[in-house]
Design brief:
Blueprint (H helix, E strand, L loop, with lengths): L3 E3 L4 H11 L1 E5 L4 H17 L12 E4 L2 H4 L1 H7 L2 H10 L6 E11 L27 E7 L11 E2 L18 E2 L7 E5 L4 E2 L9 E10 L8 H4 L2 H4 L4 H7 L17 H6 L28
Parallel strand pairs: 1-2
Antiparallel strand pairs: 2-8, 3-4, 4-10, 5-8, 5-10, 6-7, 6-9
Length: 291
């Protein structure tokens, strides 16, 4: 059974639950008005999204991305203070972290259960050391999540298990939650989308974060074109990857910080990224510099 926390919890409590169980549900974080706004903003894009087209992605599943450029409300979810606090705590062992992907996952009636997997296998199945986490992931319930309609399935505690194991859905529990609640889970926990045996679509907003020295699953620089990115807040842009992944990761041209380059495309001020530190997704935090 998955642990539930109230929306009044703090990031350290979420991080502690993730280290112990690999996943936790935070109840009723977003209100109905927020979820309604996401529905309105993304409805035409979801409608136009093709099915995934393979057994893993789901023959009756749509995965609609580019949420930063398509949904102003999703930008608020990406930057939600509680999730940001939890991410900072859970991924504190690295210099920086970044937005990994944004997508709405729509599991339609008749979709079978997804193969149970670890999200961190996306990094070419690299065998990260046990206990070294590289992702914090969220699925916000855009519709209610139930056993019947395909709620995400999780193997609690499997974040401590060996890599490349095979689990069946009988080994999992359903992450049942109300609309506006959020499942927070690590990249190391075994999980998968559930089978939708209902007559309605199950939708979740999948927003994930990873360490700044790893490649992002969704290419944020193309998913959100520069003409849109330039109008976004610096805090969001830094999280999207317009910051240094570590001391010298991600600069542009003649050692120009990527955020500076975006704001002044020619990099005319010549800002040396080394004067800006290793980079951090928290603008209020002091830069961490490695010598």
């Amino acid at each position: 059974m998955l642990r539930h926390l109230s929306a009044g919890c703090n990031g350290a409590q979420i991080a502690e639950a993730l280290r112990a169980d690999g996943a936790v549900i935070i109840d009723d974080v977003a209100d109905s008005a927020t979820m309604d706004a996401v529905d309105r903003e993304l409805a035409p894009f979801i409608e136009a999204t093709p099915y995934s087209g393979d057994a893993f992605g789901g023959f009756r599943t749509k995965r609609t991305g580019s949420l930063i450029s398509r949904s102003p409300t999703c930008r608020d979810l990406v930057m939600h203070p509680l999730i940001r606090e939890a991410t900072n705590s859970f991924l504190e062992h690295a210099t920086n972290h970044q937005l990994h992907l944004t997508q709405v996952i729509s599991i339609e009636p008749g979709q079978e259960g997804q193969p149970v997997h670890r999200d961190q296998w996306a990094f070419d199945f690299f065998p990260f050391p046990k206990g070294y986490d590289v992702q914090l992931n969220t699925i916000w319930a855009l519709t209610e999540f139930t056993e019947e309609n395909g709620a995400t399935r999780v193997v609690p505690g499997s974040n401590q298990a060996e890599d490349k194991l095979r689990f069946e859905h009988g080994d999992t529990v359903a992450a049942e939650m109300t609309r506006g609640s959020v499942l927070v889970y690590s990249g190391s926990v075994y999980h998968g989308g559930g089978a939708n045996n209902s007559d309605a679509v199950r939708r979740g907003i999948n927003i994930t974060y990873n360490l700044g020295f790893l490649r992002q699953e969704e290419n944020q620089y193309l998913a959100t074109p520069p003409e849109i990115a330039r109008d976004l807040d610096d805090d969001l842009l830094q999280l999207m990857g317009y910051s240094m992944g570590a001391y010298a990761l991600g600069y542009v041209g003649d050692l120009v910080n990527p955020l500076t380059h975006l704001r002044s495309p020619d990099g005319v001020d010549g800002t040396d990224v080394r004067s800006l530190g290793g980079g951090t997704t928290e603008p209020s935090a002091k830069p961490r510099v490695t010598n």
